[in-house]
Batch of 3 targets.
Target 1
Amino acid sequence: MTNSSRSAKGQEPCLRVIPLGGLHEIGKNTCVFEYGDDLMLVDAGLAFPSDGMHGVNVVLPDTSFLRENQKRIRGMIVTHGHEDHIGGISHHLKHFNIPVIYGPRLALSMLTGKMDEAGVSDRTTLQTVSPRDVVKVGQHFSVEFIRNTHSMADSYSLAITTPVGTIIFTGDFKFDHTPVDGENFDLARLAHHGDQGVLCLFSDSTNAEVPGFCPPERSVFPNLDRHISSAEGRVIITTFASSIHRVSMILELAIKNGRKVGLLGRSMLNVIAKARELGYMRAPDELFVPIKQINDVPDRETLLLMTGSQGEPLAALSRISRGEHPQVKVKTTDTIIFSASPIPGNTISVVNTIDKLMMLGAKVVYGKGEGIHVSGHGFQEDQKLMLALTKPKFFVPVHGEHRMLVQHARTGHSMGVPENNTLIIDNGDVVELTPDSIRKGNPVKSGIELLDQSRNGIVDARVLKERQQLAEDGVVTILAAISTDGAMVAPPRVNLRGVVTTADARKMSMWTEREVGWVLENRWKQLCRNTGGKAPEVDWMGVQREVEVGLGRRMRRELQVEPLILCLVQPAPAGTPAYKSKAMEEKDDRPAPRNRGGRHGGGGYSGQGRREPTPAPVRSNIARTNTASVNTARTAVAEKVESKPVSAEPEMPAGRTRRRRSAAV
C-alpha cells in the first residue's frame, strides 16, 4: 500500500478521488480514482477558451499528476462521447500511455478518429462495453456500466466497487422516460446498489439551480415541426453535432416535410457518419444532397443542418453570417433555427451571429420561449431522484460552477444527507474515503493547459500575456544598433502599432535613446564578458530585456499604457563611430534614479540572469557624450531630486506584470 492511499490522520487505507477538471467550471471533466498502486481515470475532456485567450483553440486540465504517476495508470473509463468528456484523450496519449480504455461504442468510435488524426492509436487499447457490463481495472476497481439518458446516445453512469465501498459516479444525466432511441435509464440497477449500500455519490450539478424535472428530448419535436412546416423558403438549423437524438429528430422532420438535407461542418459530417454506421441514426442515403449541389434543390425543399450554434468564428453558420461561405448565402426567405442554448461564456458570440443573420434579412428562431431546445442535464427533481435511488452515505457534487455545487449540496441535505457528510471541492482537491469517513486530503497540482489551433503547441502564460498586451495596448518595436565595445552607433528606430498615445515621435525617440544609453552606461559591464578572444561575448538578450523593461516603465508612468515592447539589437563591429545623441541635451523630466530605484529597483539583469547592484550612479547616456552634456544632465537630475524626492519602485522579474499606476505616482 502506497503512502498516497493512506488517510491523512493515520495508516488506515483509503480511496482517493481526485478531480483534475470539471469543478467550479463547465467542461474538461477529468477525474482520477486511486487506491494502493492503482490509478483509474474517468473521462478526460476539454473546455472552450474564454474571450481573453487569444489564439487558443481548446483548454485542457493540467495533467502533471498523471505524468508523474503514469506507471500506476491501469485504465480509463469513458461515460459518453461529448467533447467535454473525451476531447482531451488523444492529446494526453502523446504524453503517457493508458493500457486500456473502456467505453460505449459510439464514444469509442468517435475517439478512434481523433486518435488516428493525432497519431496515438498505438498508445492504448479500446474496449467497447454494453449495459450492465462489469470490467476490472487494476486490482482494486470493478466498474459496472449503468445505462442512463442524456442528450447524447449511448451514455452511462458508473457503479465503482472499491475496497472501501461502492461509489456511484453519475456522469452527465437526466431522467428521460421517453428517450428518442428507446434506451431507458436503468433505474433498477441504481436502486439495487442503493439497497446494497452506496458509500458515496458523485453527481452531475450542471442544472442544480433549476427547479422541477428536465423536459424530455422528445418535447422539442412538435415545436421544430411547426417552424419547419411553416417555412416558406430554406430551413437552416444549427445544433450540437454530438446531440444525436436532436439530429435524428431533425432528419425525421426533413423526411416528413419533404426536404432534402445538406450538411455543413466537419464535426456534423463525422458524427452523423459514425451514428449511421453504428445504427444510432436511421436515414436513407437519398435524403442527403452534397452541399455543392444544394443550390439545385428548390428552396421550399431544402434543409441545411450545420455547426455554429455557439458562435464559433470558423463554424459554418458564423461564416455564413459574415458572407464568407463559398456555397451558402443568406436569403430573405430563409428561416434559421438555433436548436441549442449558449454555453456560459459564448453568449456574446451567439448574439452577434444572430444579429448579423437578422441584418441580412433572415427570420431567426431562437430562445427558451420557442421550445426548440432542452438540456441534457437533470434539474433539481432529477437530482433528488438520483439521491433517493442511491441513498448514499456521503455526497460530493461535481460537474458545475461553484454556485451549482453549493445548491446541489443543499438539495442533498434536503434528501437526508448530513452536512458533515458532504464536501464541496475544487480541481486538484483530494477526497479521502474510508468506510466510515470522508475528508479532504493534501491537494495535487492542478490548472489548465492551453492549446493553439494546431492542438499541438502549448500556449504558456507568457505567450498568453503577450497576446493580451497586443490586443489591449498594441506593440512597440525598437531597432538599436550597438557596437561590441558598448557604443550606440545610430539613433534607435521606434515603430508603434496599435498604441494610442499622446507622445509624438520625437519624444518616443528621445525616451528610447535614453534607455539604450542608460543600459550601455550602467549595465554593459554585467552584460559583456571578455573571453580573451578578438571579440567580447555580449549577452544581447540581456541588453534587449533591459531596454524593454526600462521603456515599459516609462510608458506606464507617463502615458498609462502597457504595450508589448520588442527590442531588437543590430550588433556592429568594435570601433564603429558612436552616434552623438542629442537626447541628453533635453531636460530629463523623469524621476531621479537612485541606483535606478525609480525604474529598476536597485539593478538590472546581469548576463547570468542575477540581480547585480548598480555599480555607479547615472551618468550620461552615451560614454562618448561631451563633458558639458554630462554636467547639464547631472544638474537637471540633482534639481529634480531636491525639489521632489521619488521613492524607489521595486522591479518585477521578466515576464511579470504590475498594475498600472496613475501619473501622480
Note: The mean pLDDT is 83.
Target 2
Amino acid sequence: MDINKGSNTNDGDGEQTLTNRQGHPITDNQSMRTVGNRGPTVLENYDFLEKITHFDREKTPERVVHARGAGAHGYFEAYGTVGNEPVSTYTRAKLFQEKGKKTPVFVRFSTVIHGIHSPETLRDPRGFAVKFYTEDGNWDLVGNNLKVFFIRDAMKFPDLVHAFKPDPVTNIQDVERIFDFISNTPEAMHMITFLFSPWGIPANYRQMQGSGVNTYKWVNQEGKAVFVKYHWEPLTQGIKNLTQKQAEEIQGKNFNHATQDLYEAIERGEYPEWEMCVQIMSDDDHPELDFDPLDPTKLWPEDQFPFLPVGKMVLNKNPENYFAEVEQAAFGTGVLVDGLDFSDDKLLQGRTFSYSDTQRYRVGANYLQLPVNAPKTHVATNQEGGQMLYKVDRTEPHINYEPSTIGGLHEAKQHGKDHEPYVAGNIVRQKIDRTNDFKQPGERYRMMEDWERDELIANLTNAMLSCDPRIQEKMIHFFTQCDMDYGNRIKKGVEEGKSKSDGIGGPMGATNPGQAVRQAENEGHPADPY
C-alpha cells in the first residue's frame, strides 16, 4: 500500500506518516469536521470526502467469469529443448531458446461461475492464467485446470455462461438450467464427464494441472508453423481432487481454503512448481484422426502426440496487495509474442476478441499501464487519452502518429519470416465435420478408477433428479451413447432416486439442496426479538 512513500517535509515523521492523496498529512483520522462534537457535519470535509468517495469506488466491476481468484509471482525457466530437439526447430519465441533462461511470471488461479467471495470448494472448472513478462513483451497463456471445454464455437459462449449462472429471477444456480443447455449441446459430454467426477473439485490451486485448452501455433525462423497444445503438470506437489462429501465438509470449515493454501505454502518456502509440456502436431487437417484437432472439446491422444517438456514454472512470491495485483490482473488469449501464433480454433478466435475487450471495460482503457499488467520491456505507442491515463508511451510528445518525416515512432525491424497460412473457401455458418461427441467421454469413463466412476454417477444422479423428465431422457441418451454402462447406471440412479427426492433444484454438485432449505427452517433455534 502506497502510504506517503518518500519523506514528508510537512511534519518530519517520514514515510510512515498518513496523508491523503494530495500529500497532505492527516492529523485526525477518527473524526469528521462538525459543528460541535455532535454535529451536524460541514461540507468542507476534504479529508473525509476524499476517503469516502474513493471507498465508494474501490471495487472494479466484478469479472463476469473467473471472479473468485488467487495469484502469485514467480518465474518460468526454459529447458532450451522440446523433448530431445532444440526448441528452435519449432518456434523462435525467445523465452524458450536458452537452457536456464528465466522469465518473470504472474499467475492467477480462479473458479469460474460464482462471485468474488464464493466458496472455493464448488464444482466448477478452475482458471489457470499465466502472464509471462518476456523480453519481447507480454505473453498471456489463459487456460483452465481441465484440458477440454464445453463448446467449440465462441457464438455459444454467452449462452453457456448464462445457463451455469444463477437464474435471473431467483438468483440461485439451478442444475436444471445447466442440463437443459447440456442436453441440447452434445459436444459438452466430455467436459461434463470430467466436471462431475472428482476432477471437478481440485483439492486446491497448487495440486492441479493446467492447460491452454485451445490449439495454438508455434512459428520458427523460416515462418513454418506447427499446431501446439500447452499443459502444466505439477512437479513437486502432485495432483489431488476431492469428492463431493469432502468438499462439503471443507466448505463448512473454510470457504477460502484454496487461497489460504497457496499463500501459506509460498510463505513457508514450499514453492509450487509445474512443468510446461507441449503436444505438437503438423499444421494440416489430419484426416486420419476421427476428430478435428482444432476442436477444444477433444484431447489429443498422448500415444500419438506425446507430452514434450519445454520448461518449468516456480511460484515464489505472494502479492503485496490483492486488489492491485490479483483483482486488477488482466489476461487475454490474443496476447502472443513473436514465434507464437493463432490457430483457426473457432473458440480461440472468439475469446481473443472477448478477453481483452472485457478488460478495457472492467479495468479501463489504460489497464496495460498498471504495474501487474505492464510489460517489463520497452513500450512506445501512439495511443492517447482514456480514463486513468498514467503516462504517455513515447519520447516525442508532439508526434502521436506514424509515419512521420519530422520525428516520432517508427516500425520495428522484422527478425523472422512471417507465417503466412493459406486460406480459401466460402464464408459459411456451419459446424465442423468431425464432431464425434461421444467417443472420448466414453473412453474417459472407462479409464476412471472404480471410486471415480462411483462418484461421477452419484454426482450426476443427484443433479439429474431435479430436472424435467424430458431433460433426463435426453441426458441418459447422451450418456448411453458415450458408454452403455455409463447410461444404464445414470438411468437406474434417476429411477431409484425419484422416490427419495423432492425434485427441488439447486447449485451444481450440491447433495439434496432442497433438504438444506427445510433443515435450516426446522432446526433453527427460536429467539425472542430485542
Note: Residues 1-12 have pLDDT under 50 and may be disordered.
Target 3
Amino acid sequence: MAGKIPQYFIDDLLARADIVPVVDSRVKLRKTGKNYSACCPFHDEKTPSFTVSPDKQFYYCFGCGASGNAVGFLMEYDRLPFPEAVEKLAASLGLEVPREKLDAGQIKRQQESQSLYQLTEKAAEFYREKLKDHKISTPAITYLKNRGLSGAICKEFGIGLAPPGWDNLLNQLGTSAEKTEQLELAGLAIRRQDSDGKTEPGKRHHYDRFRNRIMFPIRDQRGRTIAFGGRVLGDDKPKYLNSPETPIFHKGRELYGLWEARQANRELKRLIVVEGYMDVVALAQFDIRCAVATLGTACGEDHIQLAFRHTQELVFCFDGDRAGRTAARRALEAALPHMQDGRSLRFLLLPEGEDPDTLVRQIGGERFDTLIDEQGRPLEDFLFDLLGEGINIQTMDGRARLSKAAAPLLDLLPKGVYRQLMFQQLARRTGLEQDMLEEIIAAEKARSAELARQAQPAPKPAQKPAPKTAAMAQPGEPTPPPFGEEMPPAEAYDGPPLDDDYNPPPPDYPDESGPGNTPRRRSGQYRLPAERMLIALLLHHPQLAELIDDSSRFRDSNDADLQLFGEILQVLHKNPALNSNQLFGRLMNLESKEARELLPRLAMSHPIVGGQGQVLEYDPHTEFSDCLRTLELAAERQRKRELLDQLKTNGNQLSTEQLALLAQFRRKKD
C-alpha cells in the first residue's frame, strides 16, 4: 500500500527540476531580463504579468496572484493532485518516487478509506443495475424521461435507483457483521434505534438509508464515488436526501458535477453554480457542461476556492425566491475574500417559480447560455443593488446607510485593482471620498472589537502596592522620581515621539499599506515595513536564520507577520540546508491563506527600491539586524505608551519602577 512521499525526495526533486522548461512546454515564455514572462494561463489578460524566476525556481502572476514552484504549476495547469504532480515531474527527470513506510495507525486509516471507496463504488454499481431492472424501475425511468433526461446523460452521471424496501442494499453488500458496519460508516446504512449494539444471529440491526429514490452518485476530483444524493419517487420526506459526513466525504469541500465538467471540457471558461443535482444534469442534457452544485449546504469559502482552482469565472444561478436570494447573498460574502484581479463573479436570479432545470427545458441550452451572458449581473452591480434595497440614496441618510452596509463587505476584498475600483464605485454612488469610507470601515471594526471585548468576562482587578517615596526605598531599589510626596498629573508626561512624516513609495513599489505596514523611507530609498522586510530577507537569503537562535518569541507574537516570520525561522532551523526554492515548497503548505498569498509577492519583489523604482543593492546582514533593532525600539515605545495610558487611567497605581521610566517623558516647562 502506497505511503507518503518523503519530504527529502520532494526537496531533492525541486533542487533538480528547472521550472522554466516545465512552464515553457505549456505556456510560451519570453526572456525579460533575468526572468521570463508570459500572459498568465490562469486568468485572461492582454499585457503579460506572469513571471517565472529561474533563480528562485518560482512563478508569480502580478495580476491574479497565482504562484508556486514546478510541482504547484503542474497541479494548477494540468489539474493534478499533489502526488500525481510529483510523480509526473519525477518521471520527466527519470526518477522513481519513493514512499515512506506507514505505521500501524496510518495503514489502518488508509485501509479503511480504501475499503470505503470500494464500498461506495459497489453501491453505485448496485443502484445503476437496479435502474436497468424493468421489474422495479418503470416509475423511475418514467420520472427521468418526464424530466427530459436521456439514457446517455444518465449513464454519464451514473444515475441509479434505490428500490423500495428496507434492506435491499444490506442484502447485497452487508453479508457479514463487519461489512454491515462498513455500510454504516459509509453513510449507506442506519443502525436501528432499538439496537443494543450487539450482533445477534438472525437479527437485523441496520436498515438502508436510501429507499425508493433516484440516486445521484457524488464523485471527488479523482472520479471516485464518495457519497450519494437521493431524490424521492413517492411522497416521503425529505424530497432530497444526502449522505452524511463520512471519513471520505465532507460536503463543505465538494461540488457535485465538477468531475463531470472537467471530463467534458479541456478548459473550463466558467462554472455555473446551481442549487440542485437535477439542475446540473438537466443543463448537461442541453449541452451546458459546466454546471456544479453544493451538497445540501450553503456555498462557502471552500467551495469558492475549489471552483476558482479550475476557472476564473463563476456564475451563481439561483431561484428568484427569498431562499434563492439568501443563497446568493451567502455566496457573495464567501466569494469576496477570493476576488483577486482577473477573476469574475456574476449572478443570475431566475423568475420566481423557475429553476435552471425547468427553464432550460423551456428555452433550450443555447438561449440559456445567452441569458447568462445578457442578464448575468456582475458582482459590483448585484452587491450594490442588493444592499441598496429599501434605501433611497437620493437622501443623505440613505447614502450613509449604504456606505455603512457596503464598506465592511468591500473591505473583505484582497488588495489589488479590483478592490480599488469597487471602492471608487461605492464612492460614486454615495458621494463620499474613499478616505471617509476607510474611516467607516475602521469605525465598524472598532465597534465590533469593542462588542467582542464587552462580551468577555471582566478580569478581576489586581492588587498593586502603593508607590514608595524616596525615604521608603530599600538599598538596591530604584529611587522614585523626584516629584516629592505627590505624583504630578498625567498631563505632565509626554508620549513617545511620533514617527517621521511618511512619503509615499514609487508607483511600482509593492502595496504594503495598512495599519503597521507603512513602508520605511531612508535617503530616497524605500524599504518594506520591518516585519515584512524580515520575511523578505529570509526568502531571499535563508542563511540569515542562523543569526537568531530562538523562533518562539516571534511565533508567540500577536502580529501575524511576526508569527509568519517565526514559522519560517522554525522551518529553517530544522532544515538549515534548504535553498530558496526548497523553502518555498515547504511554505506553500502553511494553513494561513493570507501567508500563502503574501510569500510569493515578497519573494518576487526586491526589498529595497529607489525613488524611481530602481532596484538598489543592500547588505543582507545589516538590513536584517536593522529590522530587528527597529522592532525592539517599537516594542519599547509601545511599552512606554501603555505605561503612560495606565498612569492617566489609574493615577497612583503605578509601581516605582514604572514611575522612574515615565519620568523620561516629563514635559519641559516653558
Note: DSSP finds 26 helices and 19 strands in the chain.
